[in-house]
Amino acid sequence: MSETDADGDAARSYEVAVIGGGPAGLTTGLYTTRLGHDTVVIDRGGGRAAMMLDTHNVIGVTEDVSGNEFLATATEQVKEYGGDVVRDLVTTVEKRDDDRFVLTTNGGEFTADRVVFAIGFSDERPSPPLPRTGRGLHYCLHCDAYMFIDESVYVMGTGDSAAYVAMIMLNFTDEVDLLTRGEDPAWSDETQTLLDGHPIDVIHEEITGMNKRDDGWLESFEFEDGSVREYKGGFPMYGSNYNNELPASLGCELTDDGTVVVDDHRKTTVEGVYAVGDLAPGHNQVPVAMGDGAKAGLAIHKELREFPRSLSEIEANGAVDAKDVPAVSATLRDAAQAFGDDD
Fold first, then answer.
1. Among 76, 41, 19, which Cα is nearest to 243's?
2. Which pLDDT score, from 0 to 100, does residue 1 have?
3. Mean per-residue pLDDT of the chain
4. Residues of the chain with CATH 3.50.50.60
5. Strand pairing partners for 16?
6. 99 in the Ramachandran plot: left (φ > 0), alpha (ψ -120 to 50) or beta?
7. pLDDT on residue 11
8. What is the pLDDT of residue 84?
9. How many angstroms separate the CA atoms of 238 and 161, rounded?
10. CA pair distance 228, 252, nearest whole angstrom
């Protein structure tokens, strides 16, 4: 379907537009597509999931599957069910007087009845020298702590979060260093007292060099006092930059830390707008993001589905005519039939 945009060009029209092609966005797109709603997932590429060298904590997905492989499989699933996945960057989103949304991208325009933001956040990276992400530099404690059982681990940072992550890692190993990299600690006095009560070495000297093993994993850091300390890997804790500009431009309420306020169904404070995955409050985990996508997809279906008609609609307009069912577009019907034929 198409509409005409302000310049007279054709704007591609959908019931659901998902911005972001990570686990949350693709799961949303899978649900809304399979539930009979014309859906487009607009993805700029990249993202935290794409950086995963290995996939952890996703039941049914083995460790040797990379983030890119995981996302590629999910993308093909959405396409096979009849959804569109477009590589593009959404620059603006506006709500029209008719309550439909106009999404402007680098490549054109899209319109939709519902918009789902699945654009996550970016981790604040410390200054080099640093090992490769996934080979000694890790951003998800809950995903990667398992691999550091009985290994030497560092945590970088100067805030309370860094201190707490260092103490949490004592659940997995007895060798934990907290690296402030030449900066003054910013954690509270209470946190300092807690640190004093745990067997953690706080290293204040800046890192001046790094050594890697033959397989590319971190081997050790060199410090400005001339010392060398060996580590299997660790966690930088410098905060996150949430990609909340687009939902904020629509008037979506934000939390103090920059996430988008949502209800249990992932609805934002703006009618017709949803936020899922890392952009919403909660644990930053692939399975959690996928659950968010499922919740949003189900909620959107309940809002958009044609049937059952209400009693008042039937009384006003009469019974549903057989020619009006099923309420699925020709595109999705063709995709469903082709999918069934493949089985």
1. 19
2. 52
3. 94
4. 2-122+240-305, 141-236
5. 39, 114
6. left
7. 78
8. 98
9. 9
10. 48
Distances (CA, A) of 264 to 58, 299, 328: 22, 10, 27
Please report the pLDDT score of residue 93 as a whole number: 98
Extract the residue ranges of the chain whose pLDDT is less than 70. 1-10, 342-343
Q: What is the CATH number of domain 141-236?
A: 3.50.50.60
Query: How far does the chain reach from its first CA to its final CA, in angstroms?
Result: 28
Which pLDDT score is estimated for 6? 45
CA dist 304 and 284 (Å) reads 29
Q: Are 110 and 17 in contact (CB under 8 A)?
A: yes
Q: What is the 3-state secondary structure (H, E, C) of the chain?
A: CEEECCCCCEEEEEEEEEECCCHHHHHHHHHHHHCCCCEEEEECCCCCHHHCCCCCCCCCCCCCCCHHHHHHHHHHHHHHCCCEEEECCEEEEEECCCCCEEEEECCEEEEEEEEEECCCEEECCCCCCCCCECCCECCCHHHHHHHHCCCCEEEECCCHHHHHHHHHHHHCCCCEEEECCCCCCCCCHHHHHHHHCCCCEEECCCEEEEEECCCCCEEEEEECCCCEEECCEEEECCCEEECCHHHHHCCCCECCCCCECCCCCCECCCCCEEECHHHCCCCCCHHHHHHHHHHHHHHHHHHHCCCCCCHHHHHHHCCCCHHHCCCCCHHHHHHHHHHHHHC
Q: Give the model's pLDDT for residue 48.
A: 81
Neighbours of 335 (CB within 10 A): 19
Q: What is the pTM for the complete model shown?
A: 0.92
Q: Does domain 2-122+240-305 have CATH number 3.40.50.1100?
A: no
Q: Nearest-CA neighbor of 299 among 262, 336, 253, 251?
A: 262
